[in-house]
Amino acid sequence: METLLALLIACLLGAGGFCAYQRRKLKQLAAARRSQDDEIDRFRLRLNALEQESLRHSAFVSTAASVAFDAILLLDEDLQILSLNQSAARIVKAESAIGLRLPDVIDSDDLRDLAKHTLSEAESLDEQLLIGESNFRVRAKAIDLSGDTRYIGIAMQDITDLVHLNRARRDMVANISHELRTPITRIRLIIEGLFLDADKPKRKASIQSLKEIAMETDALLWLAQELLDLSMIESGEAILRLVKTPLKQVVDDAIARLESQAETKHLNIVSHVPQKLDVLCDADQLKRALANLLHNAIKWSPPGDAVTITAAESGEEVVVTVFDNGPGVADNVRERIFERFYQADVSRSGDDGTGLGLAICKHIIEAHGGRIWAEDNSQGKGGHFLFTVLKADAEFEPRQAAIDDGDAQELELPETAAPA
Q1: End-to-end Cα, the chain, rounded Å
Q2: Where in the chain is the domain with CATH 3.30.565.10?
């Protein structure tokens, strides 16, 4: 009996110890779990922070790619398009270029070769490529993101307008050089002829020589004035003062300015402008635009012919027409002849001129709130230029206008953009 009791007590003591051990074990496990929970919470916070940083980075990359002027493409090693921005989407030929190969959407062997060559280069490559009818500056670089996988990043900047502008400026320099060389050479030869005559120069010959010198000097002055006009327009220094002005007075002043040139070609400038027709204009600037159109007409009119100026009311505007019997403007260049430095190479082309006169006319007329254009010459009926100017009683509120003394409006001529 005592033995049984002892065994029972031993069992009870053993069970109590086992339970105590289990309680200690449970406490240790609970502490370990709390530690793990704390670690999990710390990892969760770090993961959330990384996710937020990744989202911000993705948003930045996406925004930068979307608003970038350059076309941006991401390719794999097989030249398959993985991503592209909106600017690039306007260049490719497919509606959805993702998953297609670069040669399938942009027809350019040079671009394909540049992309392939990039994989073997450590530095980025820059090239100027002609793709279709557009010029692009292209930069390509191989990108190592993970492991053995390599990607190709391509940025394409459309520089077509810049190339055209540079070509136009080179042409302008060449034209100006020719324009300067020709009259200077003629003036020198005429003067040498006057001084090297064995006999005393005859009065009639001397007068004719002086007239030729005056004509060539006028050509030099005209060239200098065109360059000055363009410089003032582009710098914003040319100010218009719009006042009520008789149109006939402006036309007569412009004709008087070109009278000597017309006489040289035995041309007659005829004006059919009503006496009582007032317009809202800057007389000096409008006279300059008219003089450019008349200079153009005299230049291309056959000798002994006539140049005609007419004016007629049309609503709140007055339409002014300058007409000559020269070759006229070909239909395919009518929209371009008012561009800076542009010279038609078909019906109105020539070896002289800077291509600035009509561009200056366009700036001046548009600053007056009018329009200027050349009529269709399908029938070869001569040069036919028209522009509009507001009547004196018409309302005109320019964007940068200020009232001066209650009668005049002043505004700056619009600055010329780098090209559209």
Answers
A1: 115
A2: 166-412
Chain CA centroid to CA 213, Å: 40
Give 250-266 pLDDT, tens digit per residue.
999 999 988 888 888 88
CATH 3.30.565.10 for domain 166-412 = yes
Block residue for tokens 């993961």: 47
Question: Does 130 or 418 have the greater pLDDT score?
Answer: 130
What's the topology of domain 69-158? Beta-Lactamase (3.30.450)
Q: Are 314 and 277 in contact (CB under 8 A)?
A: no
- Residue 53 has what pLDDT? 72
Burial of residue 230 (CB within 10 Å: 0-12, 13-18, 19+) is buried
Q: Where in the chain is the domain with CATH 3.30.450.20?
A: 69-158
Amino acid at 143: I
Q: Which helix (H) or strand (E) holds 298?
A: helix 283-300
Of residues 395, 300, 411, the one with CA closest to residue 350: 300
Give 407's contacts (C-beta < 8 A, 6+ positions apart): 243, 244
